Amino acid sequence: MDRHRADATRDRTRPAHRARAWKPGGPAALIPRRTVHFLGTSQLVCWGVTHYLIGVFGSHIEDDLGWESAQVYGGYSAALLVMGFASPVVGRLIDRHGGSKIMSIGSVLAAAGCTGLAVSTSLATYYAAWVCLGVAMRCTLYDAAFATLARIGGPTARRAMSQITLLGGLASTAFWPIGHGLTGLVGWRGAVLCYTAIALVTLPLHLALPRGRYGETSDASPHKGPAPSPAEPPEPGTTPPSAAVPEPLARTGRERLIAGSLYAVMMTSVAFLGASMSAHMISILTGLGLAATAAVWVAALRGVAQSVARLADVLFGRRIHPLTLALIATPLLPLGFVAGLGAGELLILAIAFPMLYGAGNGLLTITRGTLPLALFDHHTYGAFVGRLLLPGFMLSASAPIVFAFVIDNLGERGALLVAAFLGTFILAAAAALRIRFQQGPPTT
Q1: DSSP of 249-285, one letter per residue?
Q2: 331 three-state secondary structure
Q3: What are the angstrom distances between the C-alpha of 166 and each of 39, 121, 170, 202?
Q4: Looking at residue 318, what DSSP letter applies?
Q5: pTM of the model
Q6: pLDDT at residue number 413
Q7: Measuring CA to CA, which residue among 432, 322, 327 is closest to residue 369?
Q8: If 442 and its partner were Cys, which of 21, 120, 250, 367 is the partner (CB 3.0–4.6 Å)?
Q9: In the chain, what are the domains?
């Protein structure tokens, strides 16, 4: 009796944020397999025709229209700025209405933005097209997809989040060579018009997404009649309200403030680097001495590394807590940039640069979606994460222009040193988050 009383006392006095070990995502059936396939395919296409567009067409637009580099890449920056302003609103809309409607609207906007870009002849129409693409990116890329999965699967969505990034990680690998090849055949305008048609392929995929919410059924709700019998399986994309839900690690207001601040710092810095590398990785490699075609193919290895790292997480990472995964991923960023310093002398270092960076960025993309599931309440995932990511979108909007300025004044190696410093800063933030919210031993 005394021993049982002592055990109960220890359970009550254990710190709340250490009370639960990480439990991997629940049964895959909670999120239908076709949903994962549809979202994975749409991420491959949407990233390729929007976010990675400037990396392959930027120099061609400069040459054709005779604009300054800052003017051309400023369009991409404007799109990222619009993503930031739209982020909280889009997050709330997905929480309220589901991802199917919002992501479908994003597909149409992506096609419209590509069309506008292809026919633009002035800065006004060029920037208007990028504004359209900015809204489209916020409605279709990972943050929208993660919020959609969180709404469908709640805290069980972790595995599905990892899976959809497998194809999304190959977007640069697929679309940089595709864009380069199409430009040689039909020019950059014709190539971007081809992107319009490709963007519309994602519309039926988004329309087919489940519209249910975790903990609800399509036929019954607290306000509409009795709940289904326990023997009845849940609707696709839903789960019974009685399913066990792990408590968030950040449970008090102070803990949410600390966790939210560190998460925002990490993801803001990762987004800044991501925007910089998407816009300038190819030009950095050419500046270090690689031929243009070789630079395109070497830079495309970034996508291969992203997907290989994400596949490893899908296969072997189910028992790895997102806090630990972030700490594994972050050292790869500064290592990749340091390797890039020797890219002009050794091909192996030129290859190591995009692959190390891609692997680290690929895993951090997963933690971008799964850390909030572990740290915060999943019911307000879209709106809360949308607010936390707002600084990242705003700051990353300046990244293409800032890095263009750094390259012009410090050279490619100077830009890589700046990136390595920022990667080390991300590592420090991940370590602080892991130390503060490290999970305790499994409880029984």
Answers
A1: S--SHHHHHHHHHHHHHHHHHHHHHHHHHHHHHHHHH
A2: coil
A3: 10, 37, 7, 17
A4: T
A5: 0.71
A6: 93
A7: 322
A8: 21
A9: 31-216+248-436 (1.20.1250.20)
Kindly tell me the sign of the dihedral angle through the C-alpha atoms of 68, 70, 71, 76. positive
Q: What is the DSSP string of 32-43?
A: -HHHHHHHHHHH
C-beta separation of 144 from 94 below 8 A: yes
- Measured CA to CA, the distance from residue 96 to residue 117 in angstroms comes to 32
Residue identified by tokens 């479908």 is 104
**DSSP-derived 3-state class of residue 93:** helix
Contact present, 329 and 439 (Cβ < 8 Å): no
How far apart CA 247 and CA 325 sit, in angstroms, is 19
Could you tell me the two tokens for 227? 């709940």
Contact predicate 235/219, CB 8 Å: yes
**Angle at the Cα of 431 from the Cα atoms of 426 and 436, rounded to 5 degrees:** 130
Beta bridge partners of 221: 224
CA pair distance 150, 157, nearest whole angstrom: 6
Burial pattern 273-302, b for ≥16 Cβ within 10 A else e, equals: bbbbbbbbbbbbbbbbebeeeebbbbbbbb
* 169, pLDDT greater than 60: yes
d(CA 39, CA 318): 20
Q: Quick one: what percent of the chain has pLDDT higher than 70?
A: 83
Place of tokens 């960076």: 357
Contact between residue 263 and residue 364 where contact means Cβ atoms under 8 Å apart: no
Query: Do residues 66 and 193 lie in contact, with contact meaning Cβ atoms separated by under 8 Å?
Result: no
Query: Tokens representing 407?
Result: 């390259």
CB atoms within 10 A of CB 39: 32
Q: Which residues, 6 or more positions from 289, have their beta carbon under 8 angstroms from its beta carbon?
A: 343, 344
Cβ distance 73 to 401 under 8 Å? yes
Question: Could you tell me the end-to-end alpha-carbon distance of the chain, in angstroms, rounded to an integer?
Answer: 18
pLDDT digits (tens, 9 = 90+) for 296-346: 899 989 988 988 998 888 888 777 888 999 999 999 999 999 999 998 889
- State residue 126's pLDDT score: 97
In whole angstroms, what is the distance from residue 178 CA to residue 165 CA? 20
The CA distance from 433 to 127, in Å, is: 38
- Residue 16: DSSP 8-state: G
